[in-house]
Amino acid sequence: MKWIEAASYGEMSKIAADLFIDHIQKDSKSVIGLATGGTPEGFYKELVKSYEAGEISFSETTTFNLDEYVGITEESEASYHHYMKKHLFHYIDIKPENIHLPNGSAPDLEKAAKEYESKIKEAGGIDVQLLGIGINGHIGFNEPGSSFEQETHIVELTASTREANKIYFERLEDVPTHAITIGIQTIMQAKKIVLLISGASKQEAYDRLRTGQVTEQFPASVLHLHGDVTVIYTGVS
Ligand code: F6R
Questions:
Q1: What CATH number does domain 2-200+219-234 carry, 3.40.50.1360, 3.40.50.920, 3.30.300.70, 3.40.50.720?
Q2: Cα dihedral 46→52→54→57 (10° resolution)
Q3: Residue nearest to atom 11 of ligand 1 (CA)
Q4: Catalytic site residues (predicted)?
Q5: What is the pLDDT of residues 105-135, one digit of tens each?
Q6: How far apart are CA 21 and CA 9, in angstroms?
Q7: 140 within ligand 1 shell (Cβ under 6 A)
Q8: Please, are residues 35 and 79 in contact by the beta-carbon 8 Å criterion?
Q9: Is-contact 100 118, C-beta < 8 A?
């Protein structure tokens, strides 16, 4: 695992964006895994800036997002579909057919999960995967106790995750109880992984990841078993 300490949130975002930009410049057909949440907002700003400056094109790039809530529509402002349009897709030249997010409003969620996993495989797997980390160590929505062997599946969100994400909803009761997420096995099959950690609320998760102990009780710890992980962190020490 490579650890890079960034002096600020802006610097973390720029270092991460440069890694992805470099990858896409070298291989325009890259398959990129994307995350949502507060942490990567600056990262997306950097990608948009680079696109607007004419440094990069996404016209041949394919993306797969990590997760989506179950039970809210794609149009809902709290959906990850909406988040991705708002922060990235609206501003760049990516082809709509190359954008993939799990379908949290599918009538048959199990089937939707299987189909999503197949699409990732058909695309040849993920070249570079962006991750954030939950305060409980989740990656994607793989909560503590998740098997390391799982592919895309439906999860019940923990109380701590729902609490952390309630800022995007009017009331805690509105935060979905379930999500559809790519599994840890899917994440581990990505050729390269970039994990962003930002801010004091992630100190405990950062400390735990630093110990190097691998356990399903702390999902991000699985990353110690991957050969190409870069952690870019700021605001924790
Ligand atoms: C988001 C995701 C989550 C977040 C994590 C951290 O697609 O899969 O694992 O990365 O919950 O979220 P923030 O960045 O909001 O602290």
A1: 3.40.50.1360
A2: 70
A3: 134
A4: 67, 136, 138, 143
A5: 999 999 999 999 999 999 999 999 999 999 9
A6: 18
A7: yes
A8: no
A9: no
CA 222 to centroid of ligand 1, rounded, Å: 16
Using pLDDT thresholds of 50, 70 and 90, give the confidence band for residue 20: very high
Ligand 1, residues 87, 100, 133, 201: which to mutate, most atoms within 8 A of Cβ?
133
Q: Is 66 in the pocket of ligand 1 (CB under 6 A)?
A: yes
Q: Which tens digit of pLDDT belongs to each residue from 170-226?
A: 999 999 999 999 999 999 999 999 999 999 999 999 999 999 999 999 999 999 999
Q: Where are the domains of the chain?
A: 2-200+219-234
Helix (H) or strand (E) holding 44: helix 41-52
